[in-house]
Write a structure and sequence with these properties.
The chain is an alpha+beta fold and 420 residues long. The protein has 2 domains: 186 residues, no CATH class; 184 residues, Apc35880, domain 1 (Alpha-Beta Plaits, 2-Layer Sandwich), CATH 3.30.70. Helix content is 25%, strand content 18%. The protein is built from 11 helices and 9 strands. Strand 7 and strand 8 form a beta hairpin. The chain is globular.
Length: 420
């Protein structure tokens, strides 16, 4: 068929195709609401539950994180998009297409309601976790676009600028953050791509980050992974099985702030460039002293096994502490930070080169917590001021998001309690 003829058909039926597209989104929402939850599928993680999946879910191998700016000033348009997003997310996490017609089942003259690159792939443990940034409640210019300013939690206070920060505003902050984790990178990318497609005209991508090789364990069933410096990372991380500690340090409790956040958590993201070329030329003993652990088994320098509790009073033959006072392990330890603990869920990244012949590589740090003011901020302040590791790292981006609790029923949607 000639291009002119195709365009003629498209022009003549534009209203019909637009209506079909709207019907597709509506059918997606209706189909999702018809049952209590989508049926289980091999490799699928439940979308509905008391908590959002992707926080204490055993950390998957791959990440695609995206931060969106909301470009509409219409509250109704934003709510409508969040409903469409929720319906698509519920489908994609179960291994289905983003829309009911899918990549190949709709009208040939209309754009598909799924981009198609995940056709034939299993769910791969996909989880989608949403959070709302400070600027959704009030812009940097002070505008309350959606009538949400009074619902901004005190814990969602802007993060301070820490010593040594070299933040790039273009890859920091955002109105909405979405974390897609999966065991297959194409599944994670497919999910983010389709949410961006659905949100076109209402949101724009501010920045995104791909990650590989989880750098923390979120379950006792997982072995501790290694970061790009070659050290085991996250040995002392909170675990899904530690329910009492999660209630104390991870989940927002009743009375902590506005009710729409009760049962949720706060996410801090930081992109940390690792100067791997400089690190790789450092002696092993220096590397271990900086971290405070052995590179092999990951034991604290005061012990012999990975999960030995660090003893900061133990001294070496030189009468100095075996775990140096400016070591990373010591400065980040809860005993020196008023008991503060985090649930870390970071990933490695390699984003090409820096233009100077060096790898642009490092850690995309993600940490969930009950209140960043009492947890991440004091810990990072101590690290930024004293950590010997600062010689080898640069913090280049920063963001904070309020992640509400999960959806219990299929007729609910992301942000409903916030916009109610």
């Amino acid at each position: 068929m000639q291009r002119r003829k195709i365009l003629g058909i498209a022009g003549a039926g534009a209203a019909g195709l637009a209506a079909a597209g709207a019907a597709s989104l509506a059918m997606t929402r209706d189909e999702t609401a018809a049952g209590t939850a989508p049926e289980s599928a091999a490799g699928a993680v439940a979308f509905y539950g008391e908590r959002q999946a992707g926080i204490v879910t055993p950390a998957q191998d791959r990440l695609h994180f995206v931060a969106f700016d909301v470009i509409t000033d219409s509250r109704d348009e934003l709510v409508d998009m969040l409903q469409d997003w929720t319906a698509a997310a519920a489908r994609m996490t179960q291994g289905k297409d983003a829309g009911v017609y899918g990549a190949v089942g709709g009208q040939p003259e209309a754009p598909p309601d799924d981009t198609g690159e995940a056709l034939g792939l299993p769910p791969s443990g996909l989880t989608l976790t949403i959070g709302f940034g400070p600027t959704l409640f009030r812009t940097s210019a002070g505008k309350d676009r959606f009538g949400l300013a009074a619902k901004r939690p005190a814990a969602l206070a802007d993060l301070p600028t820490f010593p040594r920060d070299t933040l790039d505003a273009a890859i920091s902050d955002g109105d909405i953050g979405i974390q897609a984790c999966a065991h297959d990178p194409q599944v994670a990318v497919h999910a983010i791509r389709n949410l961006a497609r659905i949100g076109f005209g209402k949101v724009s991508v501010r920045w995104s980050q791909l990650g590989f090789g989880r750098t923390s364990s979120t379950s006792t069933s997982q072995a501790t992974p290694r970061n790009l410096f070659g050290f085991k990372d996250g040995t002392a991380n909170l675990k899904a099985e530690e329910t009492a500690l999660l209630d104390e340090h991870l989940w927002v409790q009743s009375g902590d702030g506005p009710s729409w956040m009760t049962g949720g958590s706060y996410l801090v993201t930081r992109k940390i460039r690792m100067l791997v070329e400089t690190w790789d030329r450092s002696p092993l003993i220096e590397q271990e002293t900086i971290i405070g652990r052995t590179k092999g088994v990951g034991a604290p320098l005061s012990g012999t096994a990975e999960f030995d509790e660090p003893d900061f009073t133990v001294k070496g033959d030189d009468d100095l502490p075996k775990i140096a006072v400016d070591s990373h392990v010591r400065l980040a330890h809860p005993t020196l930070n008023s008991g503060a603990r985090l649930l870390r869920r970071g990933y490695n990244f390699v984003d090409g080169s820096d233009g100077l012949g060096r790898l642009n590589a490092g850690l995309f740090f993600m940490a969930y917590q009950r209140d960043p003011r009492k947890q991440f901020v004091p810990v990072q302040t101590a690290l930024a001021r004293q950590d010997a590791l600062n010689e080898y790292i640069r913090h280049t981006s920063s963001a904070l998001f309020a992640c509400p609790p999960g959806l219990l029923a299929a007729d609910d949607y992301w942000g409903r309690s916030l916009f109610a």
